[in-house]
Amino acid sequence: MVVTLTCADNEGGSGCASGYPKYCTDTDNSCDPTTSYTAPVTVSTENTSYIRYYSVDEAENTETTNSSTINIDISAPTNVGILSISADSTTQLTITGLTATDSGAGLHATPYQFQETSGNDGATSSDWQVSDTYTDSGLSPNTQYTYKVRAKDAANNISDYSSTSSKYTLAAVPGTPSLTTDSSTQISASWSANSNPSGTQYYIENTTASTNSGWITDTSWESSGLTCNTSYNFRVKARNGDGTETDYSATASVATSACPSAGGGGLPAAAFLPPTAPPGGFQVLINGGSPTTTSQDVTLTLRGSSETIRMSVSNDLNFANAVQEPYDIIKQWKLSDGYGQKTIYVKFFTGYGVASNTISATISYQAQNILTPIINIITPPTPQNPPEIPPIPPQPPAEEVVPEQAPESMQNVWNLLPTQAISQFVLNPVPKEITDLTNKFPELSKTLEAIGVSKITDVSKLVDNTLILPNISEIINPPEPGLQPGQVAVQPTPSPDLVSGQVSPFGGIPLQNLTELAKQVIPTEILFAKSAGGLVDYNTTLSLSQQGHPQQQLQTIVNQPIQLIVRPDKPARAIRGYFVFKQSSAKPSSKINASKLTASLLQQEIDINQIRKSTELKQALVLSVFDFEDLDKDGVWTADVVTPPVDGQYDIFVVIDYRDQRLLPKELSLVAVVDPEGYVYTKIDRGELRINNAKVSLYWLNPQTNNYQLWPAKDFQQVNPQITDSTGRYSFLVPEGTYYLTAEAQGYIKYQGSDFVIKSGGNGVHFNIELRPQNWWMQFIDWKTVVIIALVLFIIYIIKINKLKLKK
Amino acid sequence: MQLFIRERIPYLVIIILAGLLLILAGQCYFQRQNLIVAENAIKTFQYDQKVLNFTKLFITKVLKADGEVPFEDRLQLETAVRDINDKTIFDQWNKFVNAKTALEAQIEVKNLLEMLVSKIIF
Q1: What is the pTM of this model?
Q2: I need a surface site. Which of A184, A416, A546, A674 has the fewest CB within 10 A?
Q3: B38 near A CB under 8 A
Q4: Mind listing the pLDDT tens digit for each residue in A770-799?
């Protein structure tokens, strides 16, 4: 600023003296004017300055010192910026700026101006305005807009634009889902974006099945794995780029297609569903997720779900030459030949053979660098710095810090460890599947109590162990307790209220001999099995699968008639069963040596786990469909089936269709381990020869007489002794007891085995028996031996003749 | 010929000595590297040992305490946590000590235990 001073004396005065006016400038208005004014004075100091001045006339009259204030403002306002942007709606944003300050002239009357920089649809900038808040409307949904602001002061000093801030408008609520029924297990949903731009994320939810799509950018989704003939509700929501979610759309409903017909050998609904993915989805890792390998042999880590029974692994996307095999979490695998990027493809299958989607994993198969071992030798270990640990800043001595009075946290007045989570982990009761069984079998409850299985953490004790469940006869007429191993119970006489007619001394009670009262004692929704006209009860075993599910299992022999029994807990309209091939057993038949091994020991060799491990092939194959009947309307349904002619493991599925249509059909299952029949054979040079017309007899220790007698097979719809055919096969299905076997055939030494104990009902006697020929040494004499002996004798004869000639 | 050999001998000796020196220098370098690795391992081990020592003290003196934790034990805990010389553990310990409610104490105990376990390097 330029200040001009002038001096003028009154009219008629002497006039201004030379060298005046004098002036000075400062910022506190206290300086002494000493500088003679010769030219205009420039003041450039910002903010307030003062110029002090006075004059003297020629008569030496001195003027009082005057002072003028000079205000200079050349700085723009400060504190300029975007405070916040709020998304008011799908079309409006409100931008709030910081309150600008100006220490000079102060803010202008209209100090703020907002500018939108993205240029997206509908964006506008403001004029200079009074308010520090600007509302931009007419915008597009879920679109990002960017704003900056500037301010000016009363001296029209304008600040630079502030840094920018961005915000998305709210997404619009998507349209109500439009639903299409694809099949009995799948529904497709699509919805309108409702002005949302592409790339908007949607979240559709099947509220009935409690499944959802996750956040997706498509406007369609397929909900699969559903139950047939069931209505499902869907709703959808969206979210904008800032993650702000909309409300849900209106709910839409549609039902899946009708269930497949029960006739014509149909399967349960579950048979049509792929395996449910585990939490986190199906997964395969090669070498634990390593990106590279130098070996063609790798380790696969597979993650299926509890419904995964088999899997198929291949180097080929089309699974050419791939086989289904039992599901396992670890598998050794050989990559395809040649170096490079290798991909492994895996599918998981249910017990019915329904496959999951194909999943894959990739690894780079590289040749090993021949220099690597040398480099490893000559390269010293690289020092790894220990992790940075921030040290504690200097502290007063501990004695000064630790108070005499313990803080509340160490007064033992609070539970430092939350007890609820701990008790939930440790003290939760056993799973419902097991408690259901213990409710139905009080004996099982006692057993679990005795072995200390009372809470969820104890259940692991049951893995790889089997418990024998009582059969129907034992439930109706429990045997005397306190038996020692090997002893056989003498069955107590059952109450006439429960059993009518004759009772077998073996304890087996045919179903028709049970009174109405007894039938009501049979546990509901448990599969029981009987044989031999109901006189032999199969004891099913209870084991815990690796997935922690209780699994019932019975053991029988091929081609045996079995009566399956089930009592529904509610009136049933129909009950249908399925014999499904589970896996073949490559387990060789247990063989009994003619001399030493006892049958009882061999019986113990039959280990279900071994059978499982020896599995070579698995296929889902429904062998037969059978219907249960309840002719006498007593609520106990029975079905007569014949075990398959091929040994292996089979699943018996039973589907109960209730009269009350509001109840969903219930599925029961039982694993049947079908063993092959035994056979009688003799050893020959090239293996074994089955013996035709061999007589196999089974002797039973009568507990009443304590003597062995021929087992009364007629009472059990069987024959004893049995005469083998050209296959040499025989088998007996016997109740509990102590037995031994004999076998005889013409030309063979009679075989008598050691005694063995059948501990649980329904077991087959089917050992392979070796017979030795009576003239066993004759087997070493064949035409070759005869020729050799003859030649030796002839040579000896020639030698002797020659010696005699020489003597002569 | 003899003159030629006589002239070359010093060079040969120098080359051999230089080679030996190079080998020795290499060995020294490798040994130094090994020493650093070992020192780091020891430091880590000592740190882990201190963390475990404090964890053990915390469990026995605080979590399994039958009553109020006596002054001596609290002093021992304070010394042990300072001995670790890790600010994050020290701060978490103070959060627990200064907890004002049972819920806060439970949260800080869980955080402290989680931190102690995650701090163990080996």
Answers
A1: 0.39
A2: A546
A3: no
A4: 888 877 666 666 677 788 888 888 888 888
Q: Which residue has the tokens 């969820």?
A: A456
Q: What does the pLDDT average to over A484-503? A: 58
Instruction: Give the pair of three-digit tokens for residue A348.
Output: 């998981």
Instruction: Tell me: do A94 and A153 sit in the same domain.
Output: yes
* CATH code (residue A237): 2.60.40.10
Does the beta-carbon distance from A391 to B99 stay under 8 Å?
A: no
**pLDDT (tens digit per residue) in A558-580:** 878 888 999 888 888 888 888 87
Give phi and psi for B109, each to the nearest 5.
-60, -45
**Residue A72: strand pairing partners:** A47
Q: Is the ipTM of this complex over 0.90?
A: no
Number of domains in chain A: 6
Domain with A714, as residue range(s), is 680-779
In a domain, A131, yes or no: yes
Could you say which of A642, A675, A708 is where a domain stops?
A675
- Does one domain contain both A641 and A741? no
CATH code of the domain in which A737 resides:
2.60.40
* Residue A210 belongs to a domain: yes
Alpha-carbon span A397 to A420, nearest angstrom:
39
Spatial neighbors of A240 by CB under 8 A, at least 6 apart, are A87, A141, A142, A168, A169, A170, A171, A200
**Same-domain check for residues A559 and A606:** yes
Chosen domain end from A628, A645, A675: A675
Cross-chain residue pair A412–B69, CB shorter than 8 Å: yes
Beta-bridge partner residues of A206:
A211, A234
Cβ neighbours, 10 Å, residue A44? 10
Asked if A383 lies within 8 A of B37 by C-beta distance, the reply is yes
CA atoms of A224 and A277, how far apart (whole Å): 11
Which residues of B, range 49-68, sit inside 8 Å of A by Cβ? 62-63, 65-68
Q: How far apart are CA A163 and CA A146, in angstroms?
A: 10
B15 touches A at CB < 8 Å: no
**Which of A736, A307, A767 is closest to A507 using CA atoms?**
A736
Query: Which two structure tokens, joined as six digits, stand for A397?
Result: 């001595």
A21 prior amide bond cis, ω within 30: yes
Contact B96 A415 (CB under 8 A): no
**Distance (Å, rounded) from C-alpha A344 to C-alpha B78?**
55
| Interchain contact A384–B (C-beta under 8 A) | yes
